[in-house]
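DM from R.C. (forwarded with permission)

"hey, sorry to bug you on a friday — could you get me a structure for this? deadline for the figure draft is monday and I only need the backbone to look sensible"
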Amino acid sequence: MEQARQARNVAILIYENVEVLDFTGPFEVFTVGSNRGKDFKVYTVAEQEYPVIALGNLSINPRYTIHNCPPPDILIIPGGWGSRKEMNNETLTNWISKISKDVELVLSVCTGALILAKSNLIEGLKLTTNRLAINELREITPQSSTILEDIRYVDNGKFIFSAGVSAGIDMSLYVLGKLFGAERASETATLMEYDFNIKLQSE
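My reply, with the result:
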């Protein structure tokens, strides 16, 4: 039974110049919706141990590095200006490519899609990203993939992509509903005082 299973590990990647709400929004959703920690263990992961400076000079201490983090069940790749650098960081993209083989879900927020593209994980998928980064994503997207504009998130099954910033909250609530039902997602949104209506956006 779902209630008896071990809590899913939710790893949220952070890096220099990551967009704050891209990672804190999903962090809040999976924490608030975790059934007091019984269903999700949420943590941040960075390439190195030292503090990460997000956009706006917010300093974050990562809980783990890519070298010692617990195996994630859900991997979240946020966006931000730093994604343009990290998409060419082979240490990071190789780690994402390798670890994604064993996870249950991979979630992209905003320009996290650029990093996933360079990790060679978007072949044949439906994608979205921040509307201001659509052309950047198009430049590195294989012909087999489809970029969707003017949607909040798109579900490919294992890989789910969201548009910019606050869309990551919508996607995370959607995933919460996908795993534990619409009532759990609705209760979480209510606790967050966030206006959200679940609907599948996969077409």
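R.C.: lifesaver. The first strand starts at residue 8 and ends at 13.
me: no worries. The first helix runs from residue 20 to 32.
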